[in-house]
Design goal:
Length: 326
Amino acid sequence: MIPASPKPASSSAQGSAGDEAISPYRVFTRADWAALRAHTPLTLSDDELERLRGVGDPVSLDEVRDVYLPLTRLLNLQVAAYRQLQVLRDAFLGRPSQRAPYLVAIAGSVAVGKSTFARVLAALLARWVDHPRVALVATDGFLLPNKELEARNLMHRKGFPESYDQKAMLRFLAAAKAGDATLSVPVYSHVDYDILPGKFDTIERPDVLLFEGLNVLQTAPGVSVMASDFFDFSIYVDTDEASVADWFLERFLLLQRTAFQNPDAYFHRFADMDREKSIAFARDVWRDINLPNLRDNIAPTRDRADLIVRKQADHSISEIRLRGAV
Ligand SMILES: Nc1ncnc2c1ncn2[C@@H]1O[C@H](COP(=O)(O)OP(=O)(O)O)[C@@H](O)[C@H]1O
Ligand SMILES: CC(C)(COP(=O)(O)O)[C@@H](O)C(=O)NCCC(=O)O
């Protein structure tokens, strides 16, 4: 179903008036998008949603109804079409039909709520009978271990392109797309603030693989293969800089009262820091690390996504842009 009165894409942070005229996106208000749910049933309860919410990320059941259900309906149709295409391609190649997972990338700033978005989407997609096996992988598993970051003087560049083992990430995506039966991903711990040596998560034959991280849509000069070569669909979780700066600060203060109280936490030394110093510290980390990374490496990838969800200052999603639906 197509909404009665489509709107042209409004100007973007990077776009000029000229770009606006040639935007590949169709812009939906939340209400227009919600109408595309059709009869997709709500399969999550409030309790289940509570368990999926991230620290300080207040996604509501209304938002699940209005935003996530139409999206799962769209993805369900896309997966069906993708599978038909695979069958046809294998027939062309004269080989037995092979099944590879449908890969969905989720990008956005630090603290924008990618993990919650991905967890809720994964839970909803897994309730569809035609793709019950949904795996979720975060790209932090592909960060270089702290020892290596220290050796390269990159401890203050965590999350920047050079802080990841790009080759390992591409190898993983290639293996996933090749339909490998068992996939293994290194584990990053927010408690240790480091990769856990020798620890891997194992994923077996997912129908859909969600791949979430700030770097998933990045390209690099002179590089011929990039992560997005392996994606079937991509989503960018967007908001304005001021909102995400506040969310980062609020989350830091919340983690301070919870996760940092754990004596084993890397950030335990900040557990009892007074409020004023804590605010100053979190603002510094934002200003010196996460904001420059957002501006230089993350936000410029936004307009490569198939879908952009735009959050307001209260974290709620107010607008959705869909590529190719103009
Ligand atoms: N220092 C920390 N200690 C514990 N959990 C953390 C810490 N920093 C981030 N997290 C959690 O890690 C996840 C990923 O965070 P982040 O990379 O900022 O992306 P996003 O907020 O977009 O999901 C979130 O669930 C967040 O709450
Ligand atoms: C681990 C992260 C780089 C996010 O990684 P991602 O899962 O997006 O690959 C980020 O959460 C982080 O720790 N940044 C370092 C600066 C900071 O402490 O906020």
